[in-house]
Specification:
heterodimer; A: 302 residues; globular; B: 415 residues; Rossmann fold; three-stranded parallel sheet; 13 helices
Chain lengths: 302, 415
C-alpha cells in the first residue's frame, strides 16, 4: 500500500516533468553506450566508471583552482585517453585473438569497470564530495510547475550532443568509416578504412561524451562520488537497450521513457520501488522486442 | 581431456569460494595514518607466556568505505581517543589496550565475515564498536551471541537489537528514545503540516511506523497534520519525485529519517523549490560534512544529538579536547558513544580481573562509568539510558538550543 500522500493530477504532471528531466540525464549517458555499440557491436560496460573518472578529474582540476572551462577541456583529453587506453590495452588484444569476442570482451569490460571504480575510491576517497553548479540560473516556475534551469541546460546539451554526434556519424568521412566498420570490419579494411584509427577515434569520442555527461550530472546533483556511475550507468544502459542500442535518437527516447515511468512509479507505488522500474523495463524489452524501439534486426552475413 | 579440464575448473572454483569467504575485511591497513597503539592487523593466539605484558585487544568493526564511511571512521576515532587516554594512565590491569579495526562497508555479508574473523581470533576479548546501521548490526549480532563475545553497538537503534542476546549491548538512543525527541520537534518548530522523508531501511521503516503510532494517539491535541510520507532507497541522489510529493502536500516542515549524506542531496533539491521549509533531522544528520556539502540549504534546520561538544561537564570537555587535539575536527555522537564503550569494557575488565569473554559480558551489566553520557550503565536488556540535546544550524555551525526537550509525560500533558 503506498504511503500517505496527497494525490491529484497536479502531482502526476509534476512527476512527469521530473521524469523528463531525469530522462534527459539518462539519455545523455545512454548515448555513450549506443555510440560504442553502434560502431563496434560491443556493450561498453566500462562506460559507467569512465564517466565517474571524468567527474572526479573535473573536480580535481576545479579544486586546484582551474576555471571550469579549462577543467572540462583537460578532463575531456584525459578521459578520452583513459577510454582509448582501455581499448588499446584490453580490447584490441582480444580482437586479434580467435574467439576473443562476445563474452570475453563483456567480462573484460565489467572487470575494468570495477577496477576503475575502486581506483577512484582509493585515489579520491569513497565519501560524497561537493561539486559546484555553474549552470544554475535559478528555479523557473512555468504554469505552476517547478523547473530547474540546470534541467533546461541538460536538455539543451543532450539535443545538441545528439545532433553533433549524428552529424559526425552520418555527415563526415570518419563517420562513414565508423559505419563501415560496424557493418563489416574486414570489408571496411579492404576499402581503405583505417580500422584501428577509427576504433580509437570512437573510444576517444565516447570518452568525451562521458565527460560532458559527467559535467552535467555532477553540476545538477552537486555531488561526486565513486559509485555515481553504478546506478546511473545501469539505468542508462536500460534506456539505450529500450531505444535500440546503437541508435542515438533511440537512446534519448529510451531515457525519457525510463525517466517518466520511474517518477510515475513513485506516484503510484511510493519511492521505495523506484530503482526496479528501469530493470523491469529492460526485462520487458528483452522479452518482447530485443532490438529495442527503433532497432532493426541485425543481419549477420556469412 | 575435456573431463579433466572440467574437474580442474570445479576444483579451482571451490578453492576460490573457500578463500573468498574470509578475505573481504582484512583492512586493518585501510584506515587513515594509524596510531601505533591503535592499529594492528595481524595477530593470532600463539604468543608467548608473558600474559601480563600482552596488550588487551579489542575490535572495531564499522564502515570505513562506502556511503556511511564517516560514521565508521568517527567511531574508530572515538575508540582510539579512549585507548590512548587509558594507556596514558597505565592501561587496564597494567596491560596496554590495543584496537584491531575491520571494514564492513555497512553491508551485511561483509559484517558477518568480519565478525567471524574477530570471533575466531582468541586474543580479542570484546567488540568495542560493532557496526553502524541497525540492519547490518543485526546480521552480525547472532554470531557474537552464539560465540559468546560481548559486542557493543555505538549506533544501532532498532527496538529489537539488544534483545538478540545477553552478549549484545547498545550504547545509543533506542528507537523509542529517539521518537521521544523526534516527536517533540515538529511542535517545537510550530509546524502546521508535516512531511516525513525516510530511507527505506530497517531503521527507517520501523521509525516511521513508531512515529505514526504516536501521531495517531495524540493527533487531536497536536497543532499539525501529518500530510505526506515519502520514501527513498539508500544511494538515491535524485530526490525530485520526493520533493514533488512534499511540495504537493503543502508541507511546511519535514522530518528527514536518514543520514547526513542523503540529507545533503535532498536539502539542496528541496530548498530550491521551497526555500522557507523547515527541515528537521535526526541524530545521524549531525556531521560537519553536511554543511560542507549542502551549505545554505541546511541553514536553519534543527536536529538533536546525544553529544553536545560545548557541554561544560568535565567528562565531555576532556573527550572533546582530546578528540580535537588528535583529529583536528569536532566529534559527533558516534565518536562519543564508541569512546564510552571502550571505558565500559575497560571498567568491566578491571572489575572482573580477567579478559575472559564471558566474564567481561557479565561485568558489563554491573559497572557504572562516568563518561560523556553521564553515569553510564547498561540495563538488564543491554540498553543504556541516554539524553539528547537539540541543535540548530546557524551560520554554518551547529548551535545548541538549550532546554528544548521536555520529559515525555510533561510534553504530552502540555499539548
Amino acid at each position: 500500500m503506498p504511503p500517505r500522500t496527497k494525490r491529484g493530477a497536479k502531482l502526476i504532471v509534476q512527476q512527469i516533468v521530473n521524469g523528463i528531466s531525469i530522462g534527459f540525464v539518462y539519455a545523455i549517458v545512454a548515448v555513450g553506450y549506443s555510440l560504442i555499440f553502434g560502431v563496434l557491436r560491443i556493450m561498453n560496460m566500462a562506460y559507467a566508471s569512465i564517466f565517474t573518472v571524468g567527474a572526479h578529474f573535473i573536480l580535481m582540476f576545479i579544486t586546484a583552482k582551474w576555471g571550469m572551462v579549462p577543467a572540462v577541456i583537460a578532463t575531456m583529453a584525459l578521459t578520452g585517453l583513459v577510454s582509448v587506453f582501455f581499448d588499446f590495452a584490453m580490447l584490441a588484444p582480444l580482437r586479434s585473438k580467435p574467439g576473443g569476442t562476445g563474452t570475453t570482451v563483456l567480462i573484460t569490460a565489467i572487470g575494468f569497470n570495477y577496477v576503475l571504480q575502486n581506483l577512484c575510491m582509493v585515489i579520491w576517497g569513497s565519501e560524497r564530495k561537493s561539486f559546484p553548479n555553474v549552470i544554475d540560473f535559478g528555479t523557473i516556475r512555468i504554469a505552476g510547475f517547478n523547473f530547474d534551469s540546470t534541467q533546461f541546460v541538460i536538455t539543451g546539451v543532450s539535443i545538441i550532443l545528439l545532433i553533433i554526434l549524428s552529424w559526425i556519424i552520418y555527415g563526415t568521412n570518419t563517420g562513414l568509416g565508423m559505419r563501415a566498420v560496424q557493418q563489416n570490419t574486414k570489408a571496411a579494411n579492404l576499402m581503405g578504412v583505417n580500422v584501428k584509427r577509427t576504433i580509437t577515434f570512437t573510444f576517444f569520442l565516447s570518452g568525451i561524451t562521458a565527460v560532458i555527461a559527467a559535467f552535467l550530472v555532477s553540476s545538477y546533483y552537486q555531488l561526486v562520488y565513486p559509485t555515481m556511475g553504478v546506478q546511473l550507468g545501469s539505468k542508462a544502459f536500460a534506456s539505450a537497450v529500450l531505444g535500440g542500442i546503437g541508435i542515438l535518437h533511440g537512446s534519448v527516447l529510451g531515457g525519457l521513457i525510463v525517466g517518466i515511468l520511474e517518477c510515475l512509479s513513485v506516484y503510484f507505488f511510493g519511492g521505495g520501488y523506484r530503482e526496479a522500474v528501469a530493470f523491469i523495463i529492460l526485462l520487458g524489452v528483452l522479452l518482447v522486442k530485443p532490438t529495442g524501439l527503433f532497432g532493426k534486426k541485425a543481419n549477420t552475413k556469412v | 581431456m575435456k573431463k579433466s579440464i572440467n574437474i580442474l575448473f570445479a576444483l579451482l572454483l571451490v578453492v576460490a569460494l573457500i578463500s573468498g569467504c574470509g578475505t573481504s575485511s582484512t583492512s586493518g591497513s585501510g584506515n587513515k595514518p594509524a596510531e601505533a597503539s591503535a592499529n594492528n592487523g595481524s595477530g593470532n593466539g600463539n604468543v608467548a607466556s608473558e600474559a601480563s605484558q600482552e596488550p588487551i585487544r579489542l575490535a572495531h568493526i564499522g564502515p570505513l568505505t562506502g556511503n556511511m564511511a564517516d560514521f565508521g571512521q568517527h567511531a574508530l576515532n572515538g575508540v582510539q581517543v579512549a585507548v590512548e587516554e587509558i594507556n596514558e594512565n597505565g592501561g587496564v590491569m597494567g596491560r596496554m589496550l590495543e584496537v584491531v579495526s575491520y571494514d564492513d562497508k555497512n553491508v551485511g555479508e561483509d559484517a558477518a565475515a568480519a565478525a567471524e574473523l574477530v570471533i575466531s581470533d582468541s586474543s580479542i576479548c570484546a567488540v568495542t564498536s560493532a557496526h553502524y546501521s541497525s540492519g547490518v548490526a543485526m546480521v552480525a549480532a547472532p554470531l557474537y551471541q552464539e560465540a559468546g563475545m560481548a559486542a557493543i553497538s555505538p549506533s544501532a537503534s532498532h527496538p529489537e537489537y539488544s534483545s538478540i542476546g545477553d552478549y549484545i549491548f547498545r550504547n545509543n538512543l533506542t528507537e523509542q528514545a529517539e521518537l521521544v525527541y523526534a516527536f517533540q520537534m515538529p511542535t517545537i518548530v510550530d509546524c502546521k503540516k508535516l512531511g516525513i522523508v525516510s530511507m527505506m531501511s530497517d531503521f527507517g521503516e520501523s521509525f516511521v511506523h513508531g512515529f505514526e503510532e504516536l501521531y495517531e494517539a495524540n493527533k487531536d491535541k497536536l497543532g499539525y497534520e501529518l500530510a505526506v510520507e515519502s520514501f527513498f532507497v539508500d544511494g538515491t541522489v535524485d530526490f525530485a519525485p520526493n520533493v514533488a510529493e512534499i511540495v504537493n502536500g503543502d508541507c511546511d516542515a519535514i522530518i528527514f529519517v536518514a543520514e547526513y549524506n542523503n540529507l545533503a542531496a535532498f536539502a539542496m533539491q528541496y530548498r530550491k523549490v521551497d526555500p522557507d521549509a523547515q527541515i528537521i533531522g535526526l541524530m545521524t544528520c549531525y556531521n560537519p560534512e553536511l554543511i560542507n556539502m549542502a551549505g545554505e540549504a541546511v541553514e536553519g534546520m534543527v536536529l538533536y544529538s546525544v553529544l553536545n561538544p560545548n557541554s561544560e561537564r568535565p567528562a565531555v570537555k576532556n573527550f572533546v579536547d582530546r578528540y580535537v587535539a588528535k583529529f583536528n575536527s569536532q566529534p559527533d555522537f558516534i565518536a562519543a558513544n564508541a569512546y564510552d564503550n571502550v571505558h565500559m569494557i575497560a571498567a568491566s575488565i578491571e572489575k572482573t580481573g580477567s579478559t575472559d569473554r564471558e566474564k567481561i559480558k557479565d561485568a558489563l551489566y554491573e559497572v557504572e562509568v562516568t563518561c560523556t553520557a553521564g553515569e553510564l550503565k547498561f540495563d538488564a536488556n543491554g540498553d543504556a539510558e541516554k539524553t539528547a540535546v537539540m541543535f540548530k544550524v546557524e551560520n554554518g555551525d551547529f548551535a545548541e538550543v538549550p532546554d528544548a526537550f521536555k520529559l515525555w509525560d510533561d510534553f504530552v500533558a502540555g499539548l
